[in-house]
Amino acid sequence: MKGKIAWKLVLTVLVLAWAVSAMVPFTDTPFETYIANRATKNADEFANILKEAGKRVDPVNYKKDPTKSSTLYTAITEYANENKIDLSKYFDVNVSDIKILKKRNDVLIRELYRQSKSSLKKGLDLAGGVSFTLEINEDELLDDMFSRKGQLEDVVRVLDSRINGLGVTEPSIRVVGSNAIEVQMPGVSLKDNPEAVEELSRPARLEFRLAHRSILPSSANAPKREWPIGYELLVEENAARDGSIIEKPLYIKKCAEALGDIIDHSGVSMDDAGRFSVGMDFTSEGSKKFEEITRKILAKDAKYAGSANEYEQKQLLAIVLDGKLMSAPRIISVISDRGSITGDFNQREALELANALNNPLKVGLNRTSMNEVGPSMAEGARNSSLMAGAIGAGLVLLFMVLYYRGMGILAMITVAANIVFILGTLASFGATMTLPGIAALVLTIGMAVDANILIFERMREELNAGKSMWNSLQAGYEKAFSTIVDANLTTLLTAVILWKLGTGPVKGFGVTLAVGILATLFCALIFGRALCEIVISLGWFKNSFKWKLIGETNVDVMKHFKSMFIASWLVILCGVMAVAYRGDKCVSIDFTGGEMQTLSYAEKLSVGDITSVSNDTLGEVQASYQKDLATGNEILTVQTETGKGEAVFEALKAKYPQADLKLVGKESIGASVSSDITKNAVISLLLAFGGILLYVALRFEIGFGVGAVVALVHDILMAIGLYVILGMFGIGSGLFSAPMIAAILMTVGYSINDKIVVFDRIREELPLNPAMSLYDVIRKSINKTFARTILTSVTTFFAALALFVFGTGIIKDFSLIFLLGIITGTFSSIFIASPVFYAWHKGKRKNVEAAQDMEIKHEWEE
Question: Is the pTM value of this prediction over 0.85?
């Protein structure tokens, strides 16, 4: 027995150690302090370099004086590059694969900066970040407004995919005006690291262009008067043996032969010499295009084969990224299906390039502004929401300890480990933590105890049957195992579909949900079991199940099926009517877009003060402070619904005259949640329903799947409808913003988990009670799981209720949706899902047995 417990504990310790290490460092370290302490080699020598670099820092005059730098970050790299100092000899960071000294120093400092920051970044609402505007050249945009809108939305989609591959970074990307895109990135500081912003705002537009056959530039700085018409001078950089840069200037045709959209997929490979290249698989149309280009090049090469000009004999095809010449290879054969980009870049740069090529832009972008963005949530709101989270967690802990005593303490230890696993995994993904994310994590505490409650209630049944504590534990885990696995795998299937097919916050929710499910399974079935086996083998916690809140029930819920079904769908109908009545008032600026006003001020107001002017007349108001890097000026941006900007401005001036607000600029803004995200969310959800139906049909049978899907649709519609109705009476805003997508999806995850528990009990009771009718089996199963259903709902409800009562703003709405989801999910588990299953089989047990291929001999058949 000791061996069986030992391996579980060892595995848990190893996983916990990994999770904690992934979260290190827990907080940011000032870059100057971090880099000074990290110089483990020749520390005194580096201290002098740091001192000299520090003399260059002048954030006020650095633009006027080229000998000055804006930050210590740039000062170190500029000082080292100017004096040809190899910074890698002072640090234990492996950058030896980078041959060019300047590039090696840049990558090293960038990596040290990354390591100085906490692994879990804070989101825009908690800590702010950086905002930059990318403007599209007017001559590349179509005149037709609908076509132009499609172009802009395509750019938003591409940028979101490029920045946020897993959906856990949570950028805000939207159209501004008629030809610009605003990107807000959380957790990035312009003050500390402008180079990171340069990297993030790099458009990555790929072009394939021809080099001039016969004319070479006289130098890398050849004057424009020498340039051939229709060509521009670009320079390819390669590494010399000493790490210096060898420049190869070429005249490159301005008109591209093809753009990056001919590429279907791109990946990184490494040759025997350790050089990285980026492989490109072309689309079907791209393959034809590239084959045509290379065939024409080879035909001309054959024509010039006898030329006296050696350079003229071979045409170079330039690969240009964002106007920079990456490489200019000679074409030696016709290329159609696959090509590659070679250059003097390291693995990280190759991966970044591959990611950019996988998300190509069809238009050129120019960055026109960069701003630091303050937190979008007021400090008081953040503090109250964090306090609400602590209260919610405390209520769950208190309930579990009071109800299950010692075993409740063990359950909460496993839940704590669960949270560590989730945070560690998200940190390894580079996730950004926002307040809705933290709220979701707190609510996960309520959901994570479900497996423990299920096991404990099974143990209670075995104890009541006269078994010992040890045997009850083994039987409880054995009987709860399939239920826990089925419930979590069904939810995991939903998570995978949302991750693979969703975009933006939907994708991020899928990733977080999947991580949470796997962590819950591990903690409940391995770590939690090991703890329980240890304490029970020691004879502890014998009285953990003496107190029972809910006794044996024998409620005939099936008798009320029709009336409850009709009543609940009448409520849903009222909700649909409320949504139709409120129309656009139900939807946030996140979905509809609106107006953005730029204001100057004499006295700084809090974000909470500004948004407090919101009412039914003025509509939704969002606000943030932004600091322009170029001028150092801080401005206030106020976002409103379309047509209400002026009214909100006047209301702010009247309410806060001391602020002396003045209008600096005004422009329209697009939705931060694009139509693609919304469409993919709906498609992903529908496919998730199909996946649930299929899984439950295969694991159970089709009737259970139908019951589950009908109940899920019921829960979503009722939760949304009630949320809007309550908003009309001042309870919550009744407004759907970006985080509401996650709240609705969370309701789905909670609800399906609850349904599977009941279904699994029905499946178990059918062969155990061969003489019972289907009606009585369902009634008995619902009553057997009634205590677990209510207890799980109560613990989760506590966590959500604390967030609703003590939280503010979006947290209040987020928790309200989930509170309604808990209520509707619990209701449908009892009154909707199983009765629909019963109706599907027309109330006949033999239909279920035939579908499940059961071999049961009934008494009436003897």
Answer: no
